[in-house]
Amino acid sequence: GKLVIQSSTISAKWTNLFAKQVQETGAWYLEAPFTGSKIAAEQRQTVYYLGGDAEIIEMARPVLEPISSAILHIGPLGSASTLKLAMNVNIAGVAQILCESLSMCRSAGISDEIYFSALERNVSRSGVSDLKKPKLNGHDYSAQFSLKNMAKDLRLALESAGELSLS
User: Fold this and answer.
1) How far, CA to CA in Å, does 163 sit from each of 11, 19, 109, 142?
2) What is the pLDDT of residues 47-89, one digit of tens each?
3) Alpha-carbon gap, residue 97 to 118, rounded angstroms
């Protein structure tokens, strides 16, 4: 009669293993990784990716709605974990290229003000660039998300991709 809501960023393989262990005890299991920065979490603007049965999602909704801006049912168990890893791959790529392109401009003597003014008018502008702009302008390189956790997520995404038939 208990519900376990698992919100760690893990692979579909681990999600399904943990779900089996929980379900064998008679409890319900909901896969619920979320996305959002520290700022989003503080403002209760996280987005939950849910994997599992619709009935279980409805059981969890009263807990998740007050702390999120959106709840997306992705599909069966494992699908939300895969989507979350895919989103983190995307974030890592955008953040890496943002830093490299800014570094290129700085090396050429182009100010951060001009760089970000151009980026705001460019199709490559993103939520990641908007989020990182104040920190990069201020040369604040403190972590909003640790490299250790991003490396873990990228490793899990690579392992997951190896288990899928990618086309």
Assistant:
1) 11, 19, 45, 34
2) 999 999 999 999 999 999 999 999 999 999 999 999 999 999 9
3) 15
Contact 49/76 with Cβ under 8 angstroms?
Answer: no
Cβ atoms of 86 and 92 closer than 8 Å: no
Question: For 7-155, where are the E strands, in sequence order?
Answer: 28-31, 34-35, 46-51, 68-75
Q: Which of 51-55, 142-146, 153-157, 161-165 has the highest mean pLDDT?
A: 51-55
* Cα 160 to Cα 75, 100, 163, 165, distances in angstroms: 17, 27, 5, 10
Tokens of 96: 């890496």
pTM of the full structure: 0.88
| Cα separation, 113 vs 123, whole angstroms | 18
* Residue 59: exposure state from Cβ atoms within 10 A (0-12, 13-18, ≥19): middle
